[in-house]
Design goal:
By secondary structure, the chain is of the alpha+beta class. 19% of the residues lie in helices and 47% in strands. The strands form two sheets. Strands 3-4-5 form a three-stranded antiparallel β-sheet.
Length: 58
């Protein structure tokens, strides 16, 4: 579980593993797709995945 700020409802919510619909491996880590408490589909990237994406963008 982790805390996520939803881009739809703008709330910080605690996300549980039962809300996950997919987890995929990416360079440097993983990206989880899940459904927020408001019903919006969201994604959350691990720190390693975010760092790798920033390195690739630079």
């Amino acid at each position: 579980m982790f805390v996520h700020r939803c881009s739809s409802c703008e709330k910080r919510q605690l996300i549980f593993d039962t809300q996950f619909s997919a987890v995929r491996a990416v360079e440097g880590g993983w990206v989880a797709t899940f459904t927020c408490w408001c019903g919006a589909t969201q994604e959350h990237a691990s720190e390693g995945a975010r760092a790798a994406a920033l390195t690739l963008a630079a």
